[in-house]
Amino acid sequence: MTYETKPGVKIPSRENSLPKRFYTDVTVVAEGDGFAVHLDGRPVKSPARRALSLPTRALAELVASEWAAQGERIDAPAMPATRLCFVALDLIPDARAATVAEVTKYASTDLVCFRAPEPAALIASQAAAWDPIIAWAGRSLDARFVPATGLMPIDQDPVALQRVMQRAGELDDWRLTTLAHVTAVCGSALIALALLEGEIDGEKAFVLSTLDEHFQISQWGEDHEAADRLARLRRELVVMGEVLRALDAASAA
Fold first, then answer.
1. Which residues are 73's β-sheet partners?
2. CB neighbours (10 Å) of residue 35?
3. b/e for 4-27, b at 16 or more Cβ within 10 A?
4. Which of 29, 72, 71 is nearest to 53 (CA)?
5. Is pTM, for the whole model, over 0.85?
6. What confidence score (pLDDT) does residue 14 get?
7. pLDDT at 2
8. What pLDDT score does 223 carry?
């Protein structure tokens, strides 16, 4: 499909600008201690040309399903698990300290600690949705976070932030990558940690992180652009939950 601008000038659609699918069969192959995804018998490699060796069969099958689902064109933004694995392989090993620091920085101004001063319905919704996450952090991480009303954040307990930093630093590259990605998408390290620990799933992470937006939609309605953005965000977070569960799965061949 193309779009006419003026006679003789055509701008290709986004779909036609995507690379063509160059393979037919997608398979998962056990290789050494990991699992590879093969396209017509050839292993997938990362943008840095590293072999895409995944730690569990479940994760390899999740990645393989994204490649198998592609049509005539390869739409990389529609492959969140694959993109995440590429980042874990190519970028995170040399950026662990910076990644842990970034997660901790989000915790210092965490979404679930920012509360609206009004209206009463939104205040109640935020408390009902986010107070359990703060309580969970207290139980699971021994980290006390305090919500604040208004635009200016409060200084969170340094010990609580240290607990977040410690937990993030303990993770392997795969889980740290997922934690950092979910933290950035949600604006909340606590939601991301709850997803990591299995306290919530990806669907719940989406609901919690978009509570304010859905409240506004309930008041003013939703346009197509906002609906599309929320649908993409939901898909991203659901897949991140699937990635974490796949990492927890047994690595049996």
1. 20
2. 23
3. eeeeeeeeeeeeeebeeeeeeebe
4. 29
5. yes
6. 53
7. 37
8. 80
Closest among 232, 167, 215 to 195, alpha carbons compared: 167
What size, in residues, is the chain?
253
**CA-to-CA separations, 5 to 2, 11, 12, 18, in angstroms, rounded:** 10, 7, 11, 21
Nearest residue to 112 (alpha-carbon basis) of 19, 210, 238, 232: 210
- Nearest-CA neighbor of 112 among 219, 229, 193? 193
Under-70 pLDDT residues of the chain: 1-16, 250-253
Q: Which two tokens stand for residue 53?
A: 């060796």
- What secondary structure, in 3-state letters, does the chain show? CEEEEECCEEEECHHHHCCECCCCCEEEEEECCEEEEEECCEECECCCCCECEECCHHHHHHHHHHHHCCCCECCHHHCHHHHHHHHHHHCHHHCHHHHHHHHHHHHHCCHHHEECCCCHHHHHHHHHHHHHHHHHHHHHHCCCCCCEECCCCCCCCHHHHHHHHHHHHHCCHHHHHHHHHHHHHHCCHHHHHHHHCCCCCHHHHHHHHCHHHHHHHHHHCCCHHHHHHHHHHHHHHHHHHHHHHHHHCCCCC
Residue recorded with tokens 């390869």: 74
Please answer whether residues 107 and 100 qualify as being in contact, where contact means their C-beta atoms are separated by less than 8 angstroms: no
Burial of 116 (0-12, 13-18, 19+ CB in 10 A): middle
Dist. CA 230–CA 220, nearest whole Å = 16
**231 token code pair:** 């649908």
